[in-house]
Structure formats: structure tokens, C-alpha cells
Amino acid sequence: MAEKDQQVYPMPQAKHDEEAAVEQSKELRRKKRMKCLAYVVAFAVFQTGIILLFALTVMKIRTPKFRVRSATFETFDVVTTPTSFNIKMNAELGVKNTNFGHYKFDNSTITFFYKGTPVGSTVVSKARARARSTKKFNIVVDLISTNLPNTSDLENDINSGFLPLTSESTLQGKVELFKVYPMPQANGPAKHDEEAATMQSEELRRKKRMKYLAYGVAFAVFQTGIILIFALTVMKIKTPKFRVRSATLETFDIVTATPSFNIRMNAEVGVKNTNFGHYKFNNSTITFFYKGTPIGSAIVPKARARAQSTKKLNIVVDLISTSLPSTSELGNDISSGLLLLSSQSTLQGKVELFKVMKKKKSTQMDCTMTINLGDRTIQNLKCK
């Protein structure tokens, strides 16, 4: 009899390649959604902060300051017997407006007092103090003692050479943010009072709508400017700088007859990160050269440079001349007392913003230095 065909059963597998690809695709989509959500949340928080900043700075109305800045005397007539005075004073006044909009004020009166009794006053004309500036203007006032009661205080003050005066005034006005120009009014008289009141009400509502529209446009422009500044500063990823900061020599063995050298150098390297996010970099190797030939190398361990800071690391490297070709240049340099070295390295890493956005960035080291064999120091350390 022919042998019965034997059925071959495939070995069970936990996941085949197609299922693994589907799962990997789902995981990638989930991570992408989480990243987009994080961007939206970060932008919402940023927008909220900008709105609060806008409300607490630009939109906050502060009371202007009204002050006498300085004063001089044009005429000066003081009589001791009987005690009296008649003085013409030129004063400079100032209205300091710290708001982000103009301050328009009406006519006002400033009054000067001697111990509570008015001795002179003058008119302050209406004007406008521009945003974030001080409006200066001059006044002239006659100070006369005819209204003072008969007391010995004035005589004593005149004899002492000092007259204490005070000034008081109230300035009424309005601070105008994001000026809205009024719409032109219709020509011709109204038919009766009811129609006039209706037109006035419509005009007021139109002005109010225009004012809200101006606020919206101004805020949109402000937001656009802030977003541009944010994009060009905080969100701009810059390449970190990788440099040799300083170096000292631990052991120093120079042979002039051979010629050769064996030097152990302690170097401090720095990774300067000017970004607003951390820079995480991997292990790297720094190689030191003498006229293009490697003479030593050292490992730079992986680490993290914080935002807007410099990560400093110390390395130890043995500089040995055994791999150099037999030429007379090394002997000449040793005789001159100066060894010109260079160092090169590439650092690979990622800049991480807000724990969400990551961008790969690599930075190059290209430094030169001179070893002074006489005083055993590093000189002319320069990095590109």
C-alpha cells in the first residue's frame, strides 16, 4: 500500500509580519496624535499667557500724573512793612502719561495757596499727552498776598526768607486706546426730536461696533507679532557649539635626540546650547592631530546641555608621537619650543523643546592650540 500523505502543520507564531506592521503603524499614528495634542495644548497655554500679558500691560489704564516740574520768577516784590508780596511766577507743568494710548484732557485751573489761603490761580489749557510720554507746557501766575488774613505768620516767613506754597488742581480727561475715527454724520436737520434721538442712538452703536472692531484688529496684529517673535526666537533651533575651553599638561616627556614626545593633557570641553530646550548628545570621540596625523584621542560621554547654558566636561588624553612619520619637522618644532596641535570631533544629538518637539542637530569641533615646551602651557587656543 502506498503510504498515506502526511499533513504538515505550520508552527504557531505569536505574530506574523503583517500583524506586526499593522501594530507598528497604529503605534506611530497614536504617537503622532499625542504629539499634535501636545502642540495644541502648548499653543493654548502660550496664547493664554499672551492674552493675560496684553490685558495687564497694554489694556491696563493707569492714572496720568500731573506735576509742577519747575518754576522761575519774572517779577518779585516783597515788602516787610507792611508784610506783603506780589510775585509773577513762570512755571512748567507736566502731564506724564504712561498708558499705551493718548490722554486728552480739558481746560482746568491750578490754584496756589499760602498756608491754605489762595494767593493766585491760572488756567491750564486743554491738550493731549501722547502715549508713553510727558506733555510739557508753561503757565504764568500772579501770586498776591492781598487775600491773606492779618497774622504774624507771613511776617515771620518773610523775615526767615522762605515762603511755603502749595498748588492744587484736578485734570479731567480720557485715555484713548486704539483710536477709532468717528464716522461722518449725515447732513441736514432732523425732522423732530424722536428721529434725532434714534439717529444719535444708531450713531453711538455704530461707533461702539467700530471700537470693538478696532480692538479686535489691534489684538490680532499684536498676536501676530508675538507669534512671529516666538517663532523666530524660542522655536528657532540653533546648532550648539562644541569647543575646547582650556587645557593643562599633567605629564610631560620630550626627547630631542629621537625626536619624540609623550604628553598627558587634561582638557575641559564645553557644549554651548543657546536654544530654549535641552540638547541631548551621544558618545563621541575627540581626536588630536599634529600636522594632520592623529596623535591621541579621548571619549566624550553622552550627556545633556540644559537650555541657554553650557555643559562642561573634562577629558584626559595621551598625546604620543609614535605614529608620526620620520621627518625633520618634529625636531625643528621641538627645537623651537612650540608644538602646533589641532582637535576635531563631531557631536550627534537632539534639541528637545517643551518635552515634545525634537530635532536632530550635529555640531563640529575644529580647534587649534600651541604647546609651549618651555613653560609647559597651552597657548593660542582658538576654535572656529
From TrEMBL:
Which InterPro entries has this protein been placed in? Lea14-like_2, LEA_2
Q: What is this protein called?
A: Late embryogenesis abundant protein LEA-2 subgroup domain-containing protein
A Pfam family reported for this protein in Swiss-Prot or TrEMBL: LEA_2
Q: Which residues form the Late embryogenesis abundant protein LEA-2 subgroup domain?
A: 269-368
- What stretches pass through the bilayer? 37-59, 212-235
Disordered as annotated region, ranges: 1-20
Keywords attached to this entry:
Membrane, Transmembrane, Transmembrane helix
Q: Which organism is it from?
A: Nyssa sinensis
